[in-house]
Amino acid sequence: MSFSRDVKEELAKQYSPGRHCAIAEFSALFNICGRIKEDRFGETYLMIRTENLTVAKKSYILLNRAFEAETDIMVRNHNVRSSGMHYSLFVRKKSDVLQILKALKVIDDQGNILGASLHIQWRLVQNTCCKRAFLRGSFLAAGSITDPKKAYHLELALQDERYAKEIQKLVANFGPTMKLVERKKNHVLYLKEGSQIVDFLNVIEAHVALMELENVRILKEVRNSVNRQVNCETANIGKTVAAAARQVEDIRYIQCNMGFSQLTSGLREIAELRLEFPDLSLSELGQMLERPISKSGVNHRLRKISKIAEQLREKNGESVP
């Protein structure tokens, strides 16, 4: 089972105690998957059609809980060559149809049309809990999320641009800023930052998925931190080894072309120690001297030695490495 399906299974089990929240969530499902249709006798009926069994189950339960509506269900193969299914829910009883359309603010008490169904009826999402429920229904019907172990990506794929912008505005009330892009025939709202995806999951109350994503984020951050530290230490070791090699090369050049007799006692002592112990750090070399000195003191002496070697090379007409 995919992570996206796990999230939707969790959301399908979330039921708000208030009828107003149930209506808000059903409104989101109906806006994306529902249709207002007429039969051959001119009678209005409602249909919800989806390929997602979870959406079909949630729609059926909300119809029952919020409206006690008589609902027929039809299941069909949408392609004889595949195992994919289409789930269709029908509400045909006139009193149920009128009750639902009034609750969704599509018609008023006299049956006059108030607004298009593919539109957020803002009166349904006045309360914070209703906003959460509406976005939960929207994600159930049109959302997907990538397994966080692979990448951070959450999106809502919607057919209508205006409707996508309305949902974008609704999400922004809670903090996350969803970006909008056109992809083929859809208008896609998406989040790519782990922290914003966590915030969105919190908004729609997918708390189990949220904790799983947070655990993945923590592991990734720890792993990245360790990798950065290891890379830094490796780079430092490489620099130290390269510096020691140059110091040994300079000391041997002086030894072959001038000898140590012309060096001061301090320089001679550090030069001999570096030749004998090429792998030691500057601090360790400093502690091995007859009169121990600090790391910066050792570095100062080795710089003097390098300067002498450079002058010797110039005097001998050799290029300085």
Quick description:
Helices cover 55% and strands 14% of the residues. The model has no long low-confidence stretch (mean pLDDT 87).
Give the key terms.
single chain, about 325 residues, alpha+beta, Endonuclease I-creI, 4-stranded antiparallel beta sheet
Structure explained in plain terms:
- The protein has 321 residues and is of the alpha+beta class.
- It is 55% helix and 14% strand.
CATH A-level architecture of the largest domain: Roll
Task: Please trace the helix and strand order, writing H or E for each element.
Answer: HHEEHEEHHEEHEEHHHHH
Parts with pLDDT < 50 across at least 5 consecutive residues: none
In CATH, what is the class of the largest domain? Alpha Beta
Note the total helix count. Answer: 11
Distance between the termini: 61 Å
Shape call: rod-shaped
In total, the number of domains comes to 2
- The CATH superfamily name of the largest domain is Homing endonucleases
- Into which percent range does the helicity of residues fall? 55-70%
Secondary-structure content class: alpha+beta
Strand arrangement in the largest pleated sheet: 1-2-4-3
Question: What percentage of amino acids are in beta strands?
Answer: 5-15%
